[in-house]
Amino acid sequence: MSTYKKEFGTAVQNFAGDYTGAVEGQLWYNSTATSFQFRSVTTVGSWSTGGSLNTARSKIGSFGTQTAALGAGGSANNPGVTNTELYNGSTWTEVNDINTSRQSLSGFGTQTAGIVATGGNPPGPIQGGSTLTESWNGTSWTEVNDLNAAKAGAASAGSVNTSGLIFGGDNGVILVATNESWNGTSWTELNDLNTARNNLGGAGTQTLALAFGGEPPTGVTESWNGTSWTEVNDLNTGRKGIGSCGTQTAGLAFGGEIPGVTGATESWNGTSWTEENNLSTARFSLAGVGSQSAALAFGGTTPTTTGATEEWLGAGAPATETITTS
What we know:
By secondary structure, the protein is mostly beta strands. It has one helix at residues 4-8; strands at 13-15, 27-30, 35-41, 46-49, 61-64, 69-72, 84-87, 92-95, 106-110, 113-117, 133-136, 141-144, 155-160, 163-167, 179-182, 187-190, 201-204, 209-212, 221-224, 229-232, 243-246, 251-257, 261-268, 273-276, 287-290, 294-298, 309-313, 318-322. The chain has two domains: 4-41, no CATH class; 46-313, Neuraminidase (6 Propeller). A hairpin with a 4-residue loop joins strand 5 (61-64) and strand 6. The radius of gyration is 20 Å and the shape is globular.
C-alpha cells in the first residue's frame, strides 16, 4: 500500500507557520496554528484581504511583487504626497519619502531597486505633469535624469530598475501617446501608442509590453514588440483608472471607472481577455504589482480614498489548505 512516507520519502514535518517550500499534495503540521495543512493548487482565481496602507491614497507609483511591494507618492484627497511604504506580504511599513510630492506616477523595478517617474501635483507648478524621475536603492530616493516629455497618468512596464518603459498619459492639456524607454541612465523617445490616453494599465517589460484601457473609458489593448505598437483584442469592460500587472502574454487588469466604479478583473492570455472574480472593494486609480498568478492591488478611490489592500491568487497558483475535523 502506498503511504505518504513512501511517496515523499519522509514523515510529516513540523513548521511554525506556512511551509513555503511545500510541493503540491504535501502535508505538514503548522505548530503556530496547531493544525495540519497541505499544499493545493487553486482552480479559480480570487482576491483576499491584505494589510491596509498606513496612509490611504490613490494614484500611487508602484513596483515589486505581491510579497515585496513598494508604493510611493499618490493623492490623499489632493494635493500629491511624498509617502513611501513597503509591503512584506502582510503589513505596510513607512520608509523614506520621495523627494517631490506628486500623484499619478509611474513605476517599475523591485522593492529594493526601482524607478518612479512623471506625475502631477495640482494646483502646483507640476499640475500638468512632470518629467521628474527618482531612483530607489532600498533605503532612499535620488533624483536622476528627467523624461523628455512631461506627463501624468501614464502606464509603465519593467521588472528591473535599469530597463523600463513609460507610455501614454496627459500633459494637463491633452491626452498623449508618447512612449519612452529607460536604460538605467537616461530616457529615449520611441514609437508612440496608436491611441492617446491616460489612466491606462500596463504590463510586461521594456521590449515586450501591453497597454490597455484608459481615459476616455476604453477597452483598447495594444501590444509592444520593442519597436512598435499593434492593436489586439479589447478588454471586455472598457475603463479608466485601472490597476494592472503581469507580462505581455499573461497580464491582469482590475478595478477602474466606467464611469461607475468597478471591481472587474480580467486576465490576458496573449490573445484575448477573460473575466475573473471581482475585487472585494470596487475602486479606481488603484496601484497594482506582481504577476497574473500572484498580484497585489492597493489604494484607490471607492469613491472615497482608501488604503485597502487585496492579494490575488490566480488559477493554478499554489495555495495552503487546513485540514479540519468535526
